[in-house]
Amino acid sequence: MEQITFREETLAGLTETSTYQGKLTVVHDVLKKRCSGIDRISLALYDHQTQSLKTFIASPVAESPLQNYQVTLAAESALMEIATKGTSRVVHDLRIYADHDSIHSRAILGHGFASSYTHPIYHNKKLAGFIFFDSLHNRYFRDRVLEQVEIFVHLLSAMIVNDLAVTRALIAAMRTSVSMVQKHDFETGTHLERMAHYARLIARSLVKQELKSLDDEQIEQIALFSPLHDVGKIGIPSRILQKTTRLNREERELMNTHTMLGRQIVDDLISNFGFEQIPYIDYLRHIAEQHHEAMDGSGYPHGLQGQEIALEARITAVSDIFDALTTQRPYNAPWSNERAFALLQLLSIDKLDKSCVNALVENPYEVAQIQQLFTDLH
After folding, report:
1. Domain assignment of residue 10, given as a range
2. Are 366 and 201 a contacting pair, CB within 8 Å?
3. What is the CATH number of the domain that holds 135?
4. Would you call 256 helix, strand, or coil by DSSP?
5. Is 196 found in the same domain as 64?
6. Low-confidence ranges of the chain (pLDDT < 50)
7. What CA–CA distance (Å, rounded) separates 152 from 147?
8. Is residue 68 a part of any domain in this protein?
């Protein structure tokens, strides 16, 4: 009876929040009633494109020594072994990693944690990430504790896989629409990938400079949604999308309607398929609708100014313009990064968010890495 009540309490709390952070906090709060020595739970997701592991969320947030952290899985040999074997791992004394090359293990140890339990998550038989349980006590994860932890591991894994499936269903539907646009536009599939990575780079840089307060979950949602900014172009005639000369006034007015069309498409998908539960889904709405707004109010569709424009839309605008300038188009040769950076800084005087522009311009090495990883084939 106590076990049932315990599970019901957890599930009831999960229905009251839509974010991963909120759900993880609920699970942690309930678990600590049984296992008070579990001082931290965290989730890291695996990106198959870059073969990288990214810290995502942790509970409590204040006890997260690895915010905005990303590393290739190959660089974390212990985690690679867990992923390969598909089995959980208990480390009774984290001091064995004191001289280890693993940044992850050294960061956890340096924060005072003494023992840990790690469980791999799979989605459609592919690695999706890891769940970590950490304690400030040596040898904490013994049989009695593991019995409780494993209940919550399966609950968390099911929750994460389910949420990932819902989010990916939306993204797949949106990307299908965007790919249809690309058949009539000059964008490429790699444009979408670069957009996501530029957006993530900008958001992380803003956080590191303490200019904005975003957690890892918010950053990842911005990166996930930013490539979908032009979904509204599916409603624009191909004769306009494919035109290589300057649009006339009538054509420009029609082209400019793609932002409101995009917002309507997003709203319809969310409403018709029950995607409202996706964390920070409003980011997608704002990105589709506001990515052509300007800081001085001269943009469209609403003429918003400065902070009235959602941060995620300001980040997307910088990412989109930079990629458009630096990639091959039928009507324009690609600019060098330096030339594009200079124009972005000029536009940041009144059109683009200056902090977002600086966040990109001040990371030329990372920008070049993204371009090398996602190169257009001509």
Report:
1. 2-164
2. yes
3. 3.30.450.40
4. coil
5. no
6. 1-2, 4, 378
7. 9
8. yes
Claim to verify: residue 230 and residue 289 sit in the same structural domain:
yes
Answer yes or no: are the C-beta atoms of 90 and 127 closer than 8 Å: no
Among residues 185, 189, 196, 183, which one has the least CA distance to residue 227?
Answer: 196
Dihedral sign of CA atoms 205, 209, 212, 215 in order: positive
Structural contact between residues 188 and 123, judged by C-beta atoms closer than 8 angstroms? no
Do 78 and 155 share a domain, yes or no?
Answer: yes
Identify the pLDDT of residue 183: 56
Structural domain tally of the chain? 2
Is residue 174 in some structural domain? no
Q: Any long-range contacts for 320-323 (C-beta under 8 Å, 24+ apart)?
A: 320/195, 320/226, 320/229, 320/291, 321/347, 321/352, 322/198, 322/360, 322/367, 323/191, 323/194, 323/195, 323/198
CA 25 to chain centre: 19
Please check whether residues 141 and 20 belong to one and the same domain: yes
Residue 172 lies in a domain: no
Determine the residue type at 164: L
SS (H, E, C) 95-143: HHHCCCCCHHHHHHHHCCCCEEEEEEEEECCEEEEEEEEEECCCCCCCH
Are both 355 and 319 inside the same structural domain?
yes
Q: Could you tell me which of 363, 350, 268 has the C-alpha nearest to residue 309? A: 350
pTM of the model: 0.80
Asked if 188 and 303 sit in the same domain, the reply is yes
In a domain, 176, yes or no: no
Cα distance between residue 163 and residue 224, in whole Å:
14
